[in-house]
Design goal:
Blueprint (H helix, E strand, L loop, with lengths): L22 H13 L5 E7 L10 H5 L4 E7 L9 H9 L4 E4 L5 H17 L6 E8 L5 H13 L20 E5 L3 E6 L11 H9 L10 H15 L4 H5 L8 H12 L10 H13 L13 H11 L7 H22 L4
Parallel strand pairs: 1-2, 1-4, 2-3, 4-6
Antiparallel strand pairs: 5-6
């Protein structure tokens, strides 16, 4: 039995946020806007381990007025108990919500059912349905597209995938995933928030692989993960890692883990980088069980949306521009429904 944790921290403080917004993301956002008039349905993909932190408010301006379903992917890595809570929160914001595991066809089929339902609701308007898949980096968009193609057509891989963020760098051509009705998907690059105001939110995104490891401070990520594992207290991570005690001190923890896995340099000095990467990889592979890093109590949810999602009121000029843009979009949709464009 592992020893009790001494001097358990109740809060985690970190003041420096992480910024990562390479050029291909800005280009991707522009391409999304350019193609939006040809898109019928948006599948916004998020990470079930960080149901709040994987929301990108930039998408609200890009997809305004479009039908949308929010898909919390990697649900096999998050506790099932969060699903009704998250669904209630998102439905209060008029967002239909699904939870998916791309390894399970029945799970993925939920999205195809929504697409089929949309297409059949107005066959004249939707002779073929175009679905754009969007989301933050590394939430599993390309894996989801491959799973949809596998489930809908029993065909192989159509989108490149990888464990690191930034594999998809441009908006793709159309990928067929259903024959009847005809449904096509469009893959897009993962788009990060240019500046995440809350440093802890940034840590969560980086910890789940949404930010390149060389951009984030790996020691801070490891320290936060240790803090969360001790606070959640749902798994004996010391037993998973094969170390003989639990601790809330990152230096002590890394020394214990490094010694256990043999991450030592000549002379017995700890190879800190190798030890940290082993620890982070264990989390990302789900070895510590199902985890949710976001707090989902009512106060935390309200605070998150207030700090991360609310924009300053529009000026009179901005409001007029937004109104004209919305009118143009409605006109385009009306003309398209009549096959005029």
């Amino acid at each position: 039995m592992a020893n009790a944790v001494r001097l358990l921290r109740t809060t985690f403080s970190h003041e420096k946020s992480i910024s990562w917004f390479p050029g291909h993301m800005m280009s991707g956002l522009r391409e999304m806007r350019d193609q939006m008039r040809t898109v019928d349905l948006i599948v916004e993909t998020r990470d079930a381990r960080i149901p709040l932190s994987s929301i990108n408010k930039q998408f609200e301006q890009v997809i305004k007025g479009k039908r949308r379903v929010v898909v919390y992917n990697k649900c096999d890595l998050a506790p099932t108990s969060i699903q009704p809570v998250v669904r209630k929160v998102m439905e209060s914001r008029n967002q239909r919500t699904l939870f998916t595991d791309t390894n399970i066809n029945k799970s993925v089929k939920q999205i195809l059912d929504v697409a089929r339902e949309t297409a059949k609701s107005d066959p004249m308007r939707y002779p073929q349905l175009v679905v754009m898949v969007i989301g933050m980096p590394n939430v599993g968009k390309s894996s989801l597209i491959n799973a949809l193609r596998r489930t809908g057509l029993n065909r192989g891989k159509a989108a490149n995938t990888g464990a690191k963020p930034g594999v998809t760098r441009t908006v793709s051509g159309r990928i067929r995933v259903l024959d009847s009705p005809a449904v096509y998907l469009v893959d897009t690059p993962g788009v990060m928030i240019p500046h995440i105001p809350d440093p802890i939110t940034a840590i969560k995104v980086a910890l789940t692989g949404g930010i390149k490891d060389n951009i984030a401070d790996d020691t801070v990520l490891a320290d936060y993960l240790l803090f969360r594992l001790n606070r959640l207290d749902h798994t004996d991570y010391s037993a998973v890692l094969g170390i003989n005690q639990r601790t809330d001190d990152i230096s002590e923890f890394l020394q214990l883990l490094g010694t256990k896995i043999g991450a030592l340099r000549r002379g017995g000095e700890l190879d800190t980088d190798k030890t940290i990467q082993f620890f982070l990889r264990a989390f990302r592979q789900g070895r510590f069980g199902q985890l949710c890093l976001d707090e989902l109590d009512e106060t935390s949810v309200t605070t998150f949306f207030k700090n991360n999602m609310e924009d300053a009121p529009l000026s009179k000029n901005q409001a007029q521009k937004a109104k004209r843009a919305a009118q143009r979009q409605r006109s385009l949709e009306k003309a398209r429904s009549k096959n005029l464009i």
